[in-house]
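Reopening this ticket.

The earlier resolution said the output was attached, but the attachment link was broken on my side. Pasting everything inline this time so it's all in one place.
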Amino acid sequence: MGRIHRLTDELANQIAAGEVVERPSSVVKELVENALDAGATRVVVDVEQGGTTLVRVCDDGEGMTPDDAVLCLERHATSKISRFTDLADLGTFGFRGEALPSIASVSRLTLRTRPRGSNEGVDVVVEGGGKPAISPSGGAVGTTIEVRDLFFNVPARRKFLKATATESAHVSDVLLGMALARYDVTFVLTRDGRPVREHLRVASRADRARGVMSSDGTSLVECRAERGAIRIEAMLAPPERARAGATGLSILVNGRPVRDRQLVRAVSQAYGSVLEAGRYPLGVVWIDVPPEVVDVNVHPQKAEVRFSDARGLFDAITRELHASLAHAFGLPSLGAHPQAPIARMPVTTLRAMDGAAREAIAAVRAVADAERALFPETNLFAGERREEQGTESAEQRIRDSEFGGGYSALRYVGQIRGTFLVCEGDDGMYVLDQHAAAERVTFERLKKSYAMRGVAMQRMLVPEVVELTPSDVALLEENAEEVSRLGVEVRAVGDSAVAVHGVPDLLVRAEPQRLVRDLVAEVSRTAGRPFRGAVDLVLATMACHGSIRAGDAISAAEVTALLRALDEVDFAGHCPHGRPLVMRMTFSELERKVGR
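Inline output:
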């Protein structure tokens, strides 16, 4: 006899089960997907002992005839596809025809189903992949599948299961993913006889995301974007709610929950510098693309996908989400103050007023002077002043603009502890961290300058020598061109020191020695990526040095200039490192706190 022989169907199914059925949550995923493909509007999942003892999934879908109920337990039997080309236009979760026979081969499975239009259903019982036992039954229209004693005949697999609480958590996560995929379906989860979670059908994806993720007070921002055939819809939390792992971010491609590190990275990069490296946002992103450009037949559990133009998709996600998020995470809604000072009126109106106009113009000039003091006036092009280009000055830009809206609609009240700026809007009180606010503005101006031709530099009359390690000096020399574009000019002095000959014009407040040391530290920390990939983090660190700090006195005109500047930047509600810069308290909330 030869050494090669055919495996029995029972053994082949158990081997296949090792790919499809990893743990009880895998069973839940496959059975719920089948329920959704069958047109269910309500899916009830019951588990006992984390699913190791029992997994029951009951749906109100279309049900199956007795013949289909038996055939669905055979390998590669499916109603989803009939030819290879169908894989390019999938509209269902399942299609491989492996899940049910794989589950049946490692459990004691009972399938009870009744199709619409029939007065009788059928029960199919299979134990460990054996011959099915078939009997007529009653019951409601739809399908109920019970999976008992998972891995009872594969003890080696059963030993790899985790504690009951862990397995239960995985089941909850799977059902959450299904709920995010189908907002029009009700999902109910019971654990050991007790209801633990219910996701009622809602009207939209956004409503579903709010329902499942806002219970802990998380505020989600809705983003929508299109680029060509790509449609992106997202509900994302502010950067301060970011986590060290990506478990709080759900990504769905064409309605299918997937795991993809590149997609997660694309979403994280959309936050720019406000999201620290290694942290990931909280929220949901739905990506809809033509089915022919995505391959879902990559992984037995259909948890991974492959794209025909992955780089183009990732770029689209990052750019489009950034454009939405940049304006979303700013100041909470507010309107112009009813007693707004005259300086907030359009200049065309001011010119028609005699004494009041002169007072307003004087106030505007004070704001312009304060803006120049806070943020030295430089052109976006390195080394060129706006006046040299013949363009309008800061004072003229402020005079010719209409006042009001955003941060500039706030009325400044005062400074406390030399750190916080108290302002009044028509809907409540706003408290700003003056350093974080100025840091945000400085960062945006540095970033725009860098993106154009480089940050304008101010040369020092006397170079300052900074002691560094030989590796730090080598790092600066290796990236000399990029460092120069940052507005910093350094030259090696021996092998363990550099002389600082120039610093960014916008950072006249910064100490050259500390600026260079922190620049080197930031570049070294991100040594795993190209220099340009770390530019935002470097600029954020530089902006911190060049901005007003806690304890600095600030005039009313300077506050006005700062508020105006915030209206012109992205992510205006957070500093470049992701820390919130404003806190809002409505007047009604304030009144409750003091008992009015």
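Reporter confirms the inline version is readable. The two ends are 95 Å apart (CA to CA). The longest helix spans residues 354-374.
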